[in-house]
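User: I'm putting together a small comparison set for a docking exercise, and I want a reference complex before I start. The sequence is below, and the ligand is magnesium ion. Could you produce the 3D structure with the ligand included, as structure tokens?
Assistant: Of course. I'll restate your input first, then give the structure tokens for the complex.
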Amino acid sequence: MAKWNFKIVLAGDGAVGKTSIRERYMGKGFTGDYLKTIGADFASKKVKIENHDITFQIWDLAGQDSYSAVRSTFYKGAIASLMVFDCQDPKTLTNLKSWMDEAIEGSKNGILTFFIIANKIDLEEKRRVSREVAIDFCHRVEKNTGIRIYYCETSALTGQNIAETFDFLGHKLLGANNIKIKEKPAITDGIIDIHQKVAEGATIIDGVSKEEFDVLKNRMDNIEKKVKTIQTIIKKLVEKIQ
Ligand code: G3D
Ligand code: MG
């Protein structure tokens, strides 16, 4: 029976709900070491997927600075990262760009799975970042970094999608270690494989559907051809004049 130790880091702006997500998953009474110098908390939880014993080591930043040179300890050895934003505040989503850069650098590219998490989904009336906008953002980040991203919507308050996210992570991380698991994770509508979605053409490419994208691309290709023809004509004219 194999034992697995997966270090997962929670990153994102202050007050987006990182500690709440961790506490919701692990219960309030965790015993964590307080890593004073880097301002991080750490707690662990054991779970079982089929006959595999998994220990999730979950690290959570207490500091609110968007960058700190001492953070490398925080990311060192991390295999997955939950990048959390508050669905009430678009800035916390766009700030995830620099959080991701920091995580990629700090983990020395060791992070295999990134989750972008829209938290506080229970506050429906106050929501200011739509699912579409968030998915579009994830797609752009995936395109720019080449990193596979999963997107999910959670509420640390109601518990929506919290356990599901960690269960999904457990399956993915075992998979990344070439472990074949028969039972499927409890995938919910809230968990979206950005890569898969784009490959299926089922969702957004820079804000347009796959069909619209293909039409636009076709038009661009035609315009490009016309421009080339015009350039050739101009070149010939210039040659004649000379
Ligand atoms: P952080 O660890 O990212 O800094 P916290 O964020 O977990 O400390 O959460 C910040 C505030 O947001 C807390 O409120 C917390 O209760 C609230 N919060 C976190 N997640 C959710 C959620 O899913 N839904 C709602 N409605 N609130 C949430 P206080 O008032 O204690 O500061
Ligand atoms: Mg916190």
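The pocket of G3D (ligand 1) is lined by residues 14-20, 119-120, 122-123, 155-157 (CB under 6 Å). The first helix runs from residue 18 to 26.
User: Thanks, that's exactly what I needed.
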